[in-house]
Structure formats: structure tokens, C-alpha cells
Amino acid sequence: MPQKVVGIGPWFRSASNGTPVMSPVAKIWWRRWVPACVFLACWFFGVWGRCAEVRLLTLTNFQEFTRTTTTPPAESVVLTSPVLDPGFPWKELIVSWNASTNVALSVEARPVPPFDSPFYSLGRWAAKPSPESPRESINGQRDARAEVKTDVLVLNQPARQAQVRLEMRGPEAGLKRVSLAFSGTEPGPTNEPLRNAWGPELAVPGSPYH
């Protein structure tokens, strides 16, 4: 007995087993036109929109970080990364992390070169805040090189590389991941719309709905 097929847009669902099956027309559209649409969208926004370049660097192996230990009573380990290169001049940096609840972190970053740049605090975090391990952002960080806007490091001039420094209390195994989101120069001005492609405007009288 043939199966009854119920249509739902470009998809078809078999009534016997409920498995969705794509129609031949939808398959052709998906294979031929979706890649072309994605390419054109990327080209348009990348060339005409002049969008800022962005890159995400995710670190899960901290063996190459240098380690120092602070003195008691607030004993902690300080991890300083090697020089990190996003591959383009960057002006903004956001640092995020993934850590277990038994870890407290103080996160800092700086642009390099020059290598005498100060580290800027991008936040202190603890699952259970306390006077020794607060959860807060540091206000008032601004100098001739950069400014911290909440938890975003914003440079006055682009830099090629960066370093991140973490002061951590708790087991080092509790630090799972650190990600750095770099953003390049600011986007260019918005392009004017192509008004000649809008077509004529029809004067249609309004009608209230009842």
C-alpha cells in the first residue's frame, strides 16, 4: 500500500514513519542557490559594507604560559601568555573564559608592541564572590594608549599582537578555556540605498480592519 505523504512547504513528511524527506525541487534549490547566496552576501558586506575584520583565538593548552606564584596570605598563580597574533591590526579586544566553580580569576590584557605596555584589567570573576575574590569590573582605566570600556579593551592606535595575564586561585585544571575576540578598524560609512531599484510607489487608499 503506498504511503500517504503530507506536504509542508519544500519538505514532505511520510505519514507512516514521520521521517522528513526533502522534495527534488528543494534539493536543487539548496545545492545550487544557497552557496551562491552565501558567497554574494559575504562579498557584499565584506567589500561594499567594509565591515571590520574580526577573529577569535581560543586557548585550551596553557603549558606555554609563564608561571609565577604570589606570596601568602592571598596565594595564587599568575599565568602570562606568549605573544598572541590575530593576523591583522586590532583595535578592540574582549577576553572570555570557561572555569570551574572552585576557581577565582583576575583577567588582564595588553597590546604589543611595545613590550612595556601596561596590562589592563578586563574583569575579576568568582563563582562565589568574597572580599578576597570579588566579581567586578575596574573603572577608570584610561591612558594615552588605550581605554577599558567595561570589559572591552579599546586602543587609540591599532596593535599587531597582544598578551593576556591571568591571576588564578584554585587548581589550574579548573581553567578550561580562554578566548580572545579581536576586532580590527571601525566599519566604513553606510552606503546609500539604490533608490532606482525600488520601483514606483502606488497610492493605495487605506482601509480599516474590522
| Main β sheet profile | 5 strands, antiparallel
Shape: elongated
The CATH C-level class name of the largest domain:
Mainly Beta
Q: How many separate helices? A: 1
What structural category characterises the helix and strand content?
Answer: mainly beta
Strand content: 35-45%
What is the element layout, followed by pairings?
Layout: E1 5-8, E2 11-14, E3 20-22, H1 24-48, E4 54-59, E5 66-69, E6 77-80, E7 90-99, E8 104-112, E9 120-126, E10 146-149, E11 152-159, E12 161-169, E13 175-183
Antiparallel strand pairs: 1-2, 2-3, 4-13, 5-6, 6-12, 7-11, 7-13, 8-9, 8-12, 10-11
Characterise this structure.
- The protein has 210 residues and is mainly beta.
- It folds into 2 domains: 46 residues, no CATH class; 130 residues, Jelly Rolls (Sandwich), CATH 2.60.120.
- Helix content is 12%, strand content 39%.
- A 5-stranded antiparallel sheet has the order 4-13-7-11-10, with no helix packed on it. Strands 5-6-12-8-9 form a 5-stranded antiparallel sheet, with no helix packed on it.
- The N terminus is likely disordered.
Q: What keyword list fits this structure?
A:
1 helix; mainly beta; 5-stranded antiparallel β-sheet; 210 residues; 12% helix; single chain; Jelly Rolls; disordered N terminus; 2 domains
